[in-house]
Design brief:
With 505 residues, this protein is α+β, with helices and mostly antiparallel strands. The chain folds into three domains: 2-229, Nucleotidyltransferase, domain 5; 249-411, Nucleotidyltransferase, domain 5 (2-Layer Sandwich); 432-504, no CATH class. 35% of the residues lie in helices and 25% in strands. It has helices at 46-63, 104-109, 114-121, 130-138, 150-159, 166-169, 184-189, 225-232, 290-298, 307-310, 352-378, 395-405, 417-431, 433-447, 460-488, and strands spanning 2-8, 12-18, 24-31, 34-36, 42-44, 69-76, 81-84, 91-96, 146-149, 163-165, 199-201, 204-210, 217-224, 241-245, 249-256, 267-274, 277-286, 322-324, 342-344, 385-388, 409-411, 491-497, 499-504. The protein has a six-stranded mixed β-sheet with strand order 3-2-1-6-13-12. The protein has a six-stranded mixed β-sheet with strand order 16-17-15-14-20-21. A five-stranded antiparallel β-sheet has the order 4-5-8-7-9.
Amino acid sequence: MAVLAIDQGTSATKAVVVADDGSVIGLAEVPVVVHATADGGVELDADALWTSVVAAGEQALAAAGRPALHAIGLANQGETVMAWDRATGRPEGPAIVWQDRRSSSICDALAHHGPRLAHLTGLELDPYFVAPKMAWLRERVAAQLTITTTDTWLLHRLCGAFVSDVATAGRTLLLDLETGSWSDEACAIFGLHAADLPTVVGNAQPLGECSTFGGNVPITGACVDQQAALFAEGCHTAGEAKCTYGTGAFMLACTGSTPTRSTNGLVGCPAWRLGDELTWCLDGQVYTVGAAVSWLIDMGIMSEPADLDHLGGGVADAAGVTFVPALAGLAAPYWKPHAKAAFTGMSLGTERGHLVRAAIDGIAAQVALLAQAAGRDLCAPLTRLRVDGGLTRSRTLLQVQADLLQCPVEVYPSPHATALGVGAFAALGAGLPAIFALGIRALAYGAGGDAEVDHEAGHPIGKVLAILCFALVVIGIALGITYIVATGFGKTLSFQNFYPTLVSK
């Protein structure tokens, strides 16, 4: 039996098939075309988004030899929203990508609510997050249409559910940070209604059955991309942090079982929910990283991403040139949506290599600011940073990053961190709910009372059975987390000695 994990990202949809031993036996990636407009809009075709999900899943399964599927997991790009007809499932217009800045005017008009929203939701009032884009889109589409993040629409088409996982919902500016449920007060500020929003669910639980890829396979895992990567990279306790260098750069630091409201320009949000247990994290963003590299290529300054090392690594330094990567505004810790990118310090002696090195320095400096802010919020500097994403192939970037942070930068060995993370959630969601439910029933039997129709006295054997069931759930979660993290580092769990040990594959 295998798990199909789909990572629906900004520039591509990736699908991986993970076998029982944790190995990736099938892989496919289908590009997604994003369109930018002069007025700050960033859009993608919703039908093309759906097509990419189906194509990536089918191609990955074909590459894997079409194994029997145990479960499916879906990761999503987070703050991208769209309007669609819930009755038919048809989209209305393009999806509005997380980089879109056209809702800046709504944020400006609601600026006096910013402190209250930060306290309620842990997030800054910024066009990056979902609610301003939802309010902007609501003014432009028919009232009967549903507006949600793309994960809700994709899950609805895949299995009929109308849900959003708690980590994705935590990106909306509408979720109560502490309870993990919709905030009526936050919704009212944006002129939205909690009743119109999808049900908030955990990250590892059955959501419905999917026949898109053959048979009826349960979808049991769902998560926003960055939190899925945080989970895969083993950042499960307070102070452990990772940064993904993708279209943007996203640094997340786990804060454990305590919701943390940043005082240093970051945002606090749910990381994941397993059963009834919520884990939180701090989050900081650089909007344009891979996108900045693409822009440098489009401008003719670079020919390909490998030029980060060939050109940027071929000079001793940037020769006084600096680059601010604010091509879509500045996120944490500044939150300046109107900021513009700039090269400064150029002269007649400036070469292409200096411009590329300045871009590397600018990206690394922004990430360093985020890591330093997280250290201040956590009252202890980060001692290491785990990294993933396409730009981690640049040794020059990683060395500059480590020099600025003055701590080790550890590259996650697998290029599939997000997919492996949501695959882990899917595996956990498929295997543990029945045991957990049995535990609940056994506990009721053990306690007696209203849970028992005849209100009999409690039965000690029920309590013992409940403890055993819950212990199995906890052990299962621990082994599942260990298994997926080990897989990313080229290891697997062995039970040859009866007790679990980590061995090389």
